[in-house]
Structure formats: structure tokens, C-alpha cells
Amino acid sequence: MISPRLSVVMPCYNETATIEKIVKRVLESPHTAELVIVDDGSTDGTREILETFNDARVRVMLQPVNQGKGAAIRRGFQEATADFVIVQDADLEYDPVDYDLMLEPLLSGNADVVFGSRFQSGRPRRVLYFWHSVGNRLLTLLSNMFTDLNLTDMETCYKAFRREVIQGIELEQDRFGIEPEMTAKVAAGGWRVWEVGISYSGRTYAEGKKIDWRDGVAAVRCIVKYGVATRGQKPGHLRG
Fold first, then answer.
1. pLDDT of 154 over the 60 cut
2. What residue ranges do the domains of the chain occupy?
3. CA 137, CA 39: separation in Å to the nearest integer?
4. What is the pTM of this model?
5. 10 has which bridge partners?
6. pLDDT at 41
7. Nearest 5°: phi and psi at 185?
8. Using the 8-state DSSP alphabet, how is residue 97 labeled?
């Protein structure tokens, strides 16, 4: 029998269409010890839905105003209490069934951090925007140039950590710049990083996708900022 050892951190903003379904899927995972939902100032009725969850594993944090996905993730990391922590978006793009894959390198003691790649997977993936995939690959390439990692998907939502690792990293980005910031600081810390292929069911803008080209530009700035700032901090070996 699987012992639940995973804190799921879920940033949430205006997700009435999906929040009930994704919470159900997360709680169905045998790995889920707790689900920390950080609502980032929703105004569409999401908060009212959050009040209806009565599973003891669900903890809801309410941001007083909309501050951004990064701010919500930072608060969720601070609140996490289980051995391992993973980020889960409040839409249906990422499938909690893949927690098995994400946790395997952590549970075996081989990894400190695991990235879930949408691009190195034999698992199902919805076909959507060509230029989004090009943008993601370019951002990953640029990030790799600064961090000296060989990731295939730096911008993935699915990043899992040993709890003491992520709670020991000081994060500051409020929006989507949190992804390159986390990556740069993990690399600078010399933590053992693994990558596994995951499934992906991307959504369209009509279905509620929020990221756009301006977030891509901001990501480039963060890659350069944190890549330059952390270069001199890299240890000469990977931590064991």
C-alpha cells in the first residue's frame, strides 16, 4: 500500500470550469498527503466552490488581491508539510496520474528535484499551438545556456522537490518568471535534477489559457537575471 508523502501546491485564479474536477483527480492519487490551494484573488465564483471542499487533506489559502502565479506558488511552498512537494495547475492540462512518474526518482533517492517534460514523452499529448512549442523550446534552450542543465522543458508546471530543498530556496518572482527563477536557483544549488516524460492536455485561450507573449518576454528577462546572478554560486559537484 502506498503511503501518501506528497504536498500538492495548487495556485488558482478564476477556474470555476475546472477546479472541482482537478481537485477530485488530485485527491484520487494515493500519493496525495495534502492539497494546498492558494486562491489568487478569484472573482468568478471559484472561492465559493473552494468553500465546499470538506476533505481533511484540502487546505485553502486566500490571497487578499491578485498577485500572480509566482506569488501563489511561493505561499504554497511555505505551507507545505509533506516529504515531497509538487506544483499542480488548477486547470486540466496536467494529469495527477503522472505523480507516479514524478515521484519515482525522488522515492528512490536518486533525485532532489524532478521536472516533468511535455516534449520527451511517449505519453499522450494534445496537439495545439506550433509557436507556443517553439517559444517553450527557445526559453528552455536559453535557460540551459545559463544553468548548464540539459532540460527539455524548463517551463513545465510539473516540478517536484524534496520539501527541504524548495523551502530552502528564496524565491521572489510574482508571475510566470517563477519558472526560470526556480530552475536557475536549483541549478546554482547543485541539486540532483531528473526529468521524466509526462502527458499533456493543453488548453486553448477560449478554454481559459492565461499565458501570452508578454510572459515570454518576462521569462527571458528572468532567465538572464537569475542566470547571471547565480553563476558564481554553483558548486563544483552535485549534491548527494
1. yes
2. 6-233
3. 29
4. 0.89
5. 37
6. 96
7. -75, -30
8. G
